Amino acid sequence: MQHILYLHGFLSSPKSVKAQATKAYFEQNHSDVRLHIPELSNFPSKVEGQLLDLIESTPALLNDGLKLIGSSMGGYLSTFLLEQFGGKAVLINPAVRPYELLQSFIGTHENPYSKEQFEIVEGDIGVIKALEAESISDQARYKVLLQTEDETLDYRLAAEKYAQSHLVIEEGGDHSFVGYENHLPAIAEFLLK
Question: InterPro entries this protein is in (predicted)?
Fold first, then answer.
């Protein structure tokens, strides 16, 4: 049994379209894979502890190194985990400097999936900055999918940071990554081979 950890983005959930498409694909095509899709806390101060607790309580995630799929903020968190524990990751429109973007999110929010109300405070910026992987030890362990019309993140930041990775840049699209399900066979092949 192989294990894959899927990390959703900020203001997202395991119920998101991408998370559900990933779950359906692995259930139909890879019955030997257990996909873990935790509901990440809306509070940035809780996310690192949540991820480290999950890895500690699920040692099978580290069999042959972590295998991660991370979308947006989940891509940023996947990079943080991979640089700590080793393994492979597929990043979809990953956030590169989310702490800069978070400045404009200071205030009260509601997660559209869980309806949980939460607040982003100034201190959260430093918490997220502390999770930054300043350098990447081996870019061959990353597959990065970017679309140029991402309205939330500048795809060029990720194209630069992950320039030596298995980089796929598609013209057009948006932050949700249009046509994501078409990439699932290649994502599975990259993580499982």
Answer: AB_hydrolase_fold (IPR029058), UPF0227/Esterase_YqiA (IPR008886)
Nearest partner of 110 among 120, 121, 122, 118, judged by Cα: 118
DSSP strand pairing (2-7 vs 33-36):
parallel
Contact 131, 111 (CB under 8 A): no
Distance CA 181, CA 178 (A): 8
End-to-end, the C-alpha distance of the chain in Å comes to 14
- Can you list the domains of the chain with their CATH numbers? 2-192 (3.40.50.1820)
Phi, psi of 52 (to 5 degrees): -65, -35
Look up the pTM and report it. 0.97
pLDDT tens, position by position, 82-139: 999 999 999 999 999 999 999 999 999 999 999 999 999 999 999 999 999 988 999 9
Q: Strands across the sheet with 87-92, in order? A: 33-36, 2-7, 66-71, 87-92, 142-147, 166-170
CA atoms within 13 A on the CB side of 35: 23
State the amino acid at position 80 in one-letter form.
F
Sign of the CA dihedral running 48, 50, 53, 57: negative
Q: Which amino acid is at 130?
A: A
Q: How far apart are CA 15 and CA 9, in angstroms?
A: 12
